[in-house]
Specification:
Length: 372
């Protein structure tokens, strides 16, 4: 009977109206629990983990090693009654092993939810940054046009850009005139071909003027043939100059526009930083100055990168332009000179020199065998 007293005292735990233990009875329960544990093991080294009523184990008390004892004590497991387990579960607090103990704490699952990013807020932040940047750049442009703001100028690079834009206008004028010449020459060749066919038809029907009509028919057909050869050379010249003007030079000017935009942003943030540095320095302005300094450094690096890109592209463009225009101008000159000199062999040799193949009428259309 003396051995059942700790179990009975643990099972009969009076509770208050709200389901919590009374302090006096809780003290007596802890005292009885100490008596039931082996010597050298205290409540400070124990962990009581309670489970629900549907669990196989109603309650488990795990004992850790006693810090002050050299011998390793035996672990003991006490299974109190269901009433004690329910009261411990309702009490809402467990006895935790202190730091350094080897017993593993049992706890329920813990879910750590990451901060959910709101797409609407991200878009709103992007719009805010874009609006602020646009405002600064617009203010810088207006200040420059009114003569109030300062701008960063690279004299050598700006001179090269101005020359490029001026040359582009002149090349566009040459291209437009060459296209007009090609159109007029095409019409003349078409007229000469029709005129040659008309002379050939009359030479067959007019016996008394057979030879005269025949001579004129042969001349017009020869002129039409040479005109087609010259037309091929001119069209090749137009295609090459068009590629140079509307692709190569245009691509370089696009990089120039990006460079100018980077320059405006750089000057805008530079002006903001200078204004903040001229103002007072206190706890409110120092974070703004530091942030402005960081933004200024970012746009300065972007400006330097774009300036370097423009310099490299201008250098390669100049080399490519000289090579392309040299070949095309030699072709144009030799073809025109041979055509008006009536030197058919030299005209054909010029086309072979530049690997130009003339398209015969109807060559683009597939034959009926290829269509099958």
């Amino acid at each position: 009977m003396a051995q059942e007293s700790p179990k009975n005292s643990a099972a009969e735990i009076p509770v208050t109206s709200n389901g919590q233990l009374e302090d006096s009875h809780e003290h007596s329960f802890n005292r009885d629990l100490k008596r039931s544990l082996p010597v050298g093991l205290g409540l400070s080294e124990t962990k009581i983990t309670s489970h629900g009523f549907d669990s196989t184990k109603e309650g488990v008390v795990e004992a850790g090693p006693f810090p002050g004892s050299s011998a390793s004590p035996k672990s003991s497991v006490i299974s109190p009654s269901s009433a004690a387990a329910s009261r411990l579960a309702g009490q809402g607090c467990d006895l935790i092993i202190p730091t350094g103990a080897r017993a593993q704490q049992k706890s329920g699952p813990v879910v750590l939810a990451d901060e959910v990013k709101n797409p609407a807020m991200e878009k709103l932040e992007l719009v805010r940054k874009w609006s602020l940047n646009t405002y600064k750049c617009t203010r810088q442009i207006i200040s420059e046009k009114l003569g109030r703001g300062s701008r960063t100028v690279d004299l050598e690079l700006e001179a090269q850009i101005d020359i490029l834009r001026d040359n582009k206008k002149k090349y566009e004028n040459i291209l437009r005139l060459a296209q007009t010449l090609s159109t007029q020459l095409f019409q003349m060749v078409h007229t000469q071909r029709q005129l040659g066919d008309a002379f050939a038809d009359l030479s067959l029907k007019s016996l008394e003027l057979h030879e005269e009509f025949g001579y004129n028919a042969d001349t017009q057909k020869l002129l039409a043939k040479n005109g087609e050869t010259l037309l091929g050379a001119i069209n090749f010249f137009i295609a090459s100059v068009n590629t140079l003007v509307n692709k190569t030079i245009e691509d370089t000017l696009l990089t120039v526009k990006q460079y100018e935009s980077a320059r405006i942003e750089y000057d805008a943030y530079r002006t903001d930083l200078e204004e903040l540095n001229l103002g007072p320095r206190d706890a409110n302005t120092l974070p703004k100055i530091e942030q402005s300094q960081q933004l200024f450094q970012v746009h300065k690096e972007k400006y330097d990168k774009m300036r370097n890109d423009v310099s490299i592209k201008l250098k390669f463009l100049e080399e490519n332009k000289v090579k392309v225009l040299h070949n095309q101008l030699v072709l144009f000159h030799n073809a025109i000179a041979a055509y008006f000199a009536g030197n058919q062999k030299q005209l054909e040799q010029t086309l072979k020199q530049f690997h130009i193949k003339l398209k015969t009428p109807g060559a683009d259309a597939p034959s009926w065998l290829e269509e099958q």
